[in-house]
Design goal:
By secondary structure, this protein is an alpha/beta fold. It has 2 domains: 1-372, 3-Layer(aba) Sandwich (Rossmann fold); 377-506, GMP Synthetase, Chain A, domain 3, CATH 3.30.300. The chain has 17 helices and 18 strands. The protein has an 11-stranded mixed sheet. It is globular and about 65 Å long. GO terms for molecular function: acid-amino acid ligase activity.
Length: 507
Amino acid sequence: MAILGSLIKGIIDFKDSLSVERNPIEEQKLVLNELLNTAKDTEFGLNYNFNKILKSEDIQKGFSATIPYFDYNKINDKWWSKLHDGRANVTWPGNPDYFAVSSGTTGKTSKKIPVTKEMLDSIKSAGVKQVTSLTNFDLPTDFFEKGILMLGSSTDLKKVDDHEEGEISGISASNIPFWFRGYYKPGEDIAKIDDWDKRVQKIAEEAKSWDIGAISGIPSWIELMLQKVIEYHNLNNIHEIWPNFQVYTSGGVAFGPYKKSFNALLGKSINVIDTYLASEGFIAFQSRPETDAMQLITDNGIYFEFVPFEPEYILEDGSLSNKAPSLTLEEVELNKDYVLIISTVAGAWRYLIGDTIEFIDIDRAEIKITGRTKFFLNTVGSQLSVNKLDDGILHLEEEFDIKISEYTLCANRIDDEFYHCWYLGTDSDIDEKQLAEVLDMYLKSANNNYKVARSKALKGVKVKTINPEVFYDWNNANKKKGGQVKMERVMGMEKFAEWELFVSEES
């Protein structure tokens, strides 16, 4: 019997048995109160009179009525930039020890998001909550003895003045608890390798000596890593070298579009568990197998607000109109898209994280990510969110029995008329006009706004199929290979012109 595994599972089961029934609405009220109290004497807290908000009859309403929405550019220009000039107590007490560097999927320059000690504690606490929830997935006792392979960005952080910088996955991995280090793979030495290809090569070389039970990371990069291990050891599937691989935790993007190509690398079925770890914090994770929705972490240093995802509230650059209303967890409804707003223990206030979500279970505060505000395709009234685009890709995979591992598109003007121009990453030889027809037909049936647009300003659909490697080469050319990097699903016309030039040069 796996004695250590039994012990760990027993501790988790005992901890779970002691947990009280959650009340996400009340948890959120407490979190907001704690955030305001802690930051009331910062520059930001004094400027917006947190003391007055704390005396409000309804703190949540007082908070939303007093403080404007901030996207990264707005809060960085006015507040966070002061931190780089050596100022302390700006939006949160003290100075952050880390900055999470994130270029996102649309920005041309890197964002530098404060990561405080309190945020690191919050991320660790959320990780423990997720591990505790694994008992719900009926995993065997010996699973809790296996290695956990976390493939993120390099843990070799850059020292800048009085802080360090790197991607959030690298910062988190460099701060793992001491008790976890025996399970953590690829280990500190390999994790520090900055070159992604060299790091994956080293993983492939060491793979045979590891007994991996779980893997965590962005689906597209995990796929490439698994392919490299399979190729290096001349295997048919990854389970020939890691037979105990049972859990994959995805993060930050919907797993659906990758499901077919990912499963092709496996020898048996596994548990796929979604997580939502962003540069701004650990937001949610899937806590039970009955659903693929994720549970918002409502008691852990992040206060959530929800703006109805309506075209009149979204500006062209993906930011929010000042007239956009915000709702509390108590006010949301099922199956409606909302723009996610967060306030955190890292000094982000009413911050537009850029994602849209919908609620699947309000009592449990369970959500699904439905897209990005900047990837909302509405150039000619088509009103397509990323989840609808993902559904279209899944439909093509089923209809033609093919694998499409990546895609991007643009509402492009050609001869003064608009077309939705798609690039699909697939190795299959399928007629592009046929793909376009089927995709167009599906989106018409799935979205009435798209159907109306196709009868008016949207002239048609064009599809080009390319080698999936081109997408990875594009990210590499833009210094975005590996880590938390996600391919931009919707491009503006200027960026799309650069993309098409790149594709033509790679062909």
